[in-house]
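## retry 2 of 3
previous attempt timed out at serialization; input unchanged, resubmitting
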Amino acid sequence: MMELTIFVLAIFLGFELITKVPPTLHTPLMSGANAISGITIVGALTCAYFTNSPFMANAMGFLAIATASINVVGGFMVTDRMLTMFGSKKEEK
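## retry succeeded, writing output
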């Protein structure tokens, strides 16, 4: 029951924090989140390599690597798009 309470409080806290972030800070925070996901990928690779139970660790490692990779790629795409929005407008020929 305590874990469920902490999980629900974390959801509310995360929602409040995300809604209070101004747009000018979104791009640097997204870059930080990409760095954290990169660390997740390295940790998942390490855990999958140095384990004694091959199937479960490999399955969980694959899942962690896949979701973190999607997060990294999506985050870089969003960051690139936001940076082009703030960039100077080029004239079309």
